[in-house]
User: Fold this.
Amino acid sequence: MTGGTPAGGLPARSRGVIALLEENCTVCMLCARECPDWCIYIESHTEPVPGAEYGGDDPARAPAGRGRQRVRNVLDRFAIDFSLYMYCGICIEACPYDALFWSPEFSYAETDIAALTHEQGRLREWMWTVPPPPPQDEGATPPGGGADGGHPRPNGS
Ligand code: SF4
Ligand code: SF4
Assistant:
């Protein structure tokens, strides 16, 4: 892959890198499991959910610790190795939480193969290059009511 946009621009729905909207990621691991190339690396840990201690608000359960502590997954690492990647899009389709998006960016060649593994921060930055979804049918209410159809943006707009 080389730099530069083809004359006439990129075709609609071009597939380049994958962008990560990390605040939507619940660390469910579906994308990593479904990726045929095993090129998605995810690391996480669990943390107790504040306000959901043993027994929660139920005084009958709390003293005896009979309720189960609720925990949530916290993402420590999300990376994609673009040296293995094959543009299939299965991870995007598998993600139930809209955390992965196609970016048309194709100009990410490196001279060091290790640099083709994009870590979480860089995958997040690709969100700025994700185009808005195609327009809905005439008269349809845009999801989220946003001017661009409610497409999630890194700045939350
Ligand atoms: S596009 Fe395909 S090969 Fe690339 S990370 Fe997603 S599932 Fe894996
Ligand atoms: S499938 Fe989506 S929510 Fe689940 S780990 Fe992958 S990116 Fe995160």
Q: What stands out?
A: Strands lie at 18-20, 40-48, 71-81, 100-102, 117-118. The pocket of iron/sulfur cluster (ligand 2) is lined by residues 25-31, 42, 94-95, 97, 99-100 (CB under 6 Å). The chain has three helices and five strands. The chain has a mean pLDDT of 83.
